[in-house]
Design a protein that fits this description.
The chain contains seven helices and five strands, in the order ααααααββββαβ. The protein is α/β, with parallel strands linked by helices and about 280 residues long. Among the domains are: about 60 residues, no CATH class; about 130 residues, no CATH class. Strands 1, 2, 3, 4 and 5 form a five-stranded mixed sheet that branches. It is rod-shaped.
């Protein structure tokens, strides 16, 4: 604006005094305020300039007049001073936080469907099973009439005594000597005392039991070297088994002879059967 320039030209002769400095400060502030028109203010006319200069010479009046607007409103076309630059503190280089690797959770195992509990088994009332009886012994079988069935193996019913002994003993002796040396092969021994087999029941048997034959292999001292062998049947299996058991339990006397070979001896089997007193 022109007003401040004229003011400076008219006041070059002012002397610096104690209030001169205050006046200059007030003039500067007032000029700044004049550059920014106040709201609701009107431009000053030339007739009002002398009064304005008089007020500037009076420091008291100037201080009382200067007032800062509360909220100045910008006017279109007015030049606003640039705000002073604001110093900013240097920013530290941004550091990215270290990336932490999170453990990948393991996939959850599939939940198996609950299997319904099986229904309780139906209870069935069973009759108690009696324990099986122990197997019958040989003596029990001898007292059972159902055990006496003719087996048709009694050779004595078909052959005479001489042919029976000749054929059966020679065949048996040959079988016992197979694979043995001359010192170990048995030689034919003698006929020994017969075996007595009891018939414990009174039931009549058809046909009646015949005389059987059992062979034994004995050492010269009378020791039984092998199990007894059935050479001829009585006609009934249960009686034959009793004859073999009796021969196994018998003790034998020493066998005389010039050679140290075992002796193949034989024993007749006699069943104590009473045909006159049996019950049909």
């Amino acid at each position: 604006m022109i007003v401040p320039l004229k003011f400076r030209a008219g006041k070059r002769s002012l002397r610096w005094s104690g209030g001169g400095l205050l006046v200059l400060i007030s003039i500067g502030m007032h000029g700044l305020l004049l550059g920014m028109p106040l709201p609701e203010s009107t431009p000053e006319t030339p007739s009002e300039l002398p009064n304005r200069l008089t007020e500037l010479n009076d420091p008291t009046a100037v201080v009382g007049v200067v007032r800062l607007p509360a909220t100045p409103k910008p006017v279109a076309g007015a030049i606003r001073p640039a705000p002073p630059p604001v110093a900013r503190a240097p920013q530290a280089p941004s550091q990215k936080p270290p990336q932490t690797q999170t453990a990948t959770p393991a996939p959850a195992a599939p939940i198996a469907p609950e299997t319904p509990a099986p229904p309780p088994p139906e209870t069935v009332d069973l009759e108690p099973v009696p324990p099986e009886p122990p197997p019958a012994t040989l003596d029990d079988r001898l007292r059972d009439p159902a055990q006496y069935e003719f087996n048709g193996q009694a050779k004595s019913l078909l052959n005479d005594e001489v042919s029976l002994y000749t054929n059966n003993l020679s065949t048996w002796l040959e079988q016992e000597s197979q694979g043995l040396s001359e010192d170990d092969a048995p030689i034919l021994g003698t006929k020994l005392a017969p075996l007595q087999v009891a018939y414990p029941i009174a039931t009549c048997l058809v046909p009646p039991p015949s005389e059987g034959l059992v062979g034994v292999i004995l050492s010269p001292s009378g020791q039984l070297l092998k199990d007894p062998v059935l050479l001829d049947s009585t006609g009934y299996t249960v009686l034959d088994e009793k004859a073999l058991e009796t021969a196994l339990q018998r003790s034998f006397a020493p066998q005389d002879g010039p050679l140290p070979n075992p002796r193949a001896s034989w024993l007749p089997v006699q069943v104590q059967y009473d045909a006159a007193n049996c019950t049909p």
